From TrEMBL:
Keywords: Cell membrane, Membrane, Transmembrane, Transmembrane helix, Transport. It is found in: Cell inner membrane. Its main location: membrane. Gene3D superfamilies: MFS general substrate transporter like domains. Residues 147-400 form the Major facilitator superfamily (MFS) profile domain. The lineage of its organism: Bacteria, Bacillati, Actinomycetota, Actinomycetes, Micrococcales. Pfam families: MFS_3 (PF05977). GO terms for cellular component: plasma membrane. This is MFS transporter.
């Protein structure tokens, strides 16, 4: 909810897609630092406690946004500061939670756990943006942020019920840089884990069009905030559906090939979105209206279906990338490796927002998903072909 609302809020204040994309620019470097050092913290201390503290900071940033909205504060740079704090806290909390999962389940159940996580994530990013779009359109930003402040307590409850989870084996060194360096050294010697990061960076850098949604809803297919909610939710619905039918899928042994194929389909889905937008733009069918009654219905359906395909494929890729990371990395290094993974999965989309927002500003809204979709397909096929161990990765014999 907050992610969607902040994008809409900044677009309302500035009318600029580029200004929306600056949320990603300002948060990127702090997120990288948080992922590296947050993972080291998770390998040193009780992971339950680390996740709780990080979540508390994230909750505080949402409280700040609600306070700003109720007080009528519209200074754009403050939004950048608060969302950066939120991104840092989320990075540390996410890395720590992912490092907890393999301590609760046997290895053979990790793909199924990842699929269940895909369902919960899908519902989160389906209901959140959809509700955010409706609330922003009908009751404003202050109530939207406030609702999310209250819903945040569910996260605290889930973490509170866990047992203490301290790292097995040698704990991370006390010195922060030494600890990070040890984790990065392990990553350099782990080609399969490293390649799982590389292909995701490719997909997210060139195939992440969410920063374009406010402009699509305002001046391309119409519908305003509700259209933004529909498009964001469509991506998540694809993820939910792919998890719901993933029972047999999670038993696949050739997980490297599964990741490659899933990301290729993802690229084709993003390309499909770009082609829909190109037809609207080049055909002169733009709808400059934020009233959902005026929306270009066929274009909205085409865009939503393309995003559903992309979301489903991205979730399949995430299931196997998460499984490789959790199964192949020893526990005492898992927090640091998960920290890098979290930087990739949260920083990658921000690179994508930079790419899409900047390219759209220089050209047209439809250009980033068309160019990006093609690049994703080509680059991922080439990258996987060059690393044979990833291409041949066997889930029964996990190797980092």
């Amino acid at each position: 909810m907050t992610t969607t609302a902040v994008g809409l809020n900044i677009y309302d204040l500035t009318g600029s897609t580029f200004m929306v994309s600056l949320v990603a620019w300002f948060a990127l470097l702090p997120m990288v630092v948080a992922g590296l050092y947050g993972g080291a913290i998770a390998d040193r201390f009780d992971r339950r406690a680390v996740a709780l503290v990080a979540s508390l900071v994230g909750w505080g940033s949402t409280v700040t946004l609600a306070t700003m909205a109720w007080g009528g504060l519209t200074t754009v740079w403050v939004f950048y500061v608060v969302t950066t704090v939120n991104a840092v806290a989320s990075t540390i909390a996410s890395a720590t939670r992912q490092a907890i999962t393999p301590r609760l389940l046997p290895t053979e159940l990790l793909p199924k756990a990842a699929a269940l996580s895909g369902i919960s994530m899908g519902f989160m990013v389906t209901a959140g943006p959809a509700v955010a779009g409706l609330l922003v359109a009908h009751v404003g930003y202050a109530w939207t942020y406030t609702v999310d402040v209250l819903l945040f307590f569910a996260g605290f409850l889930g973490l509170w019920t866990l047992p203490d989870i301290r790292p097995d084996g040698d704990r991370a060194p006390v010195g922060g840089f030494r600890s990070v360096r040890e984790g990065l050294s392990h990553l350099r010697a782990s080609p399969n884990v490293r390649m799982s990061f590389v292909v995701d960076i490719i997909a997210m850098t060139f195939g992440q069009p969410i920063v374009l949604f406010p402009a699509i809803g305002a001046v391309l297919i119409g519908g305003g905030a509700v259209t933004v909610g529909v498009l964001t939710a469509s991506y998540a619905v694809g993820g939910i559906l792919s998890s719901l039918v993933s029972g047999r899928l999670t038993d696949l042994r050739r997980q490297g090939i599964a990741i490659r194929n899933a990301i290729v389909v993802y690229g084709l889905g993003i390309l499909g979105l770009g082609l829909v937008l190109a037809v609207v733009t080049l055909g002169g069918h733009e709808v400059v209206s934020r009233d959902f009654a005026d929306v270009n219905g066929p274009a909205l359906v085409g865009a939503a279906l393309s995003l559903a395909v992309a979301g489903g494929a991205d979730n399949v890729s995430a299931i196997f990338r998460t499984t490789i990371l959790q199964a192949a990395v020893p526990d005492h290094l898992r927090g640091r490796t998960q920290g890098v993974f979290t930087v990739v999965v949260t920083g990658g989309p921000r690179l994508g927002q930079m790419f899409a927002g900047t390219l759209a500003t220089l050209t047209a809204t439809w250009v980033p998903p068309v160019v990006g979709g093609v690049l994703v397909v080509v680059l991922v096929i080439v990258a996987v072909a060059r690393v044979r161990s990833f291409h041949d990765y066997d889930a029964l014999h996990p190797q980092p």
